[in-house]
Amino acid sequence: MGRKRRLTGEKALDAAYSRTDHAPLLESWGVTLSDDILRLALTHRSFANENGNLPNNERLEFLGDAVLGVCVAEQLYTQFPDRSESDISKMRSGVVNMYALADVARELDMGRYILLGRGEMLTGGEDKHSILADTVEAMLGAIYLELGFPVARGTVLRIFSERITRAPSVGLTMDWKTVLLENLSGRHLGEPVYETAVEGPAHDQTFSATVTVGDRVMGSGTGHTKKEAEHHAAREAVASIEATGA
């Protein structure tokens, strides 16, 4: 008797998706979605590529990232009316970053629902920060497309409520070098390189730093220590990425 032929393409996708009861996932999100869009939101590119280049969740992730960003920004603007623009920018980065989104995914037990390729499954992809964070954004993109902005906004505010409330204590002390690294990793833009110079006498030195990715200077900053200068350079780079998307 010959070996059973491995399913590929849409048949593989349908089979993998059908193995799991998605009712608990939808219940944790507090929404109802069609199988078609939920399946797409959960399809990581590794699974799609291994099965005939099927559609994956990256387009939904792009959309969900925008929805999440505007919902959190609006709520911070409203909830903290006395905070400056720079403060709420830091606070937003404290709420919306790869590690925060991955934690949300773990709280919602999303890892076991993500459709992964064999390589990612073997290397623990269901608990990787980047994969979990991207899938949260893809889910928000799916909710926005199928249920509309008011429902997507309500979902964001419910799921991120505690994090938004804690944003002043978390966001204002953000490690901007880590945030920059997350942003670059999520966009596959490479590693940041810092260059630092110092001026002035030993008792009153001023450090300046630039951060470069590839051949592009992404940000610069100054401070009384090398760490402080790099911190400000990284923050400027994050602001540039958020403004331009790259």
Structural description of this entry:
- With 246 residues, the protein is mainly alpha-helical.
- The protein has 2 domains: 9-169, Ribonuclease iii, N-terminal Endonuclease Domain, Chain A; 176-244, Double Stranded RNA Binding Domain, CATH 3.30.160.
- It has 14 helices and 3 strands.
- The chain has helices at 9-18, 23-29, 35-41, 45-50, 58-79, 85-95, 98-107, 118-122, 129-147, 149-159, 161-165, 167-171, 176-186, 226-244; strands at residues 193-199, 206-213, 216-223.
- A 3-stranded antiparallel sheet has the order 1-2-3, with helices on one face.
- A hairpin with a 2-residue loop joins strand 2 and strand 3 (216-223).
- Helix 5 crosses helix 6, helix 9 (129-147) packs antiparallel against helix 10 and helix 13 packs parallel to helix 14 (226-244).
- The longest helix has 22 residues, at 58-79.
- It starts with 8 loop residues before the first helix and ends with a helix.
- The mean pLDDT is 88.
Across the major sheet, the strand order is 1-2-3
Bin the strand percentage.
5-15%
Q: SSE order, as H and E?
A: HHHHHHHHHHHHHEEEH
Largest sheet: 3 strands, antiparallel
The CATH superfamily of the largest domain is identified as: Ribonuclease III domain
Give the count of helical stretches. 14
User: Do you know the CATH topology of the largest domain?
Assistant: Ribonuclease iii, N-terminal Endonuclease Domain, Chain A
Give the fraction of residues assigned to helices.
Answer: 55-70%
Counting structural domains, the number is: 2
CATH class membership of the largest domain: Mainly Alpha
Write down the overall mean pLDDT: 88
Q: What gyration radius follows from the Cα positions, in whole Å?
A: 21 Å
Low-confidence stretches: none
Domain RNase III: 36-148
Protein name: Ribonuclease 3
Enzyme class: hydrolase
Family: Belongs to the ribonuclease III family.
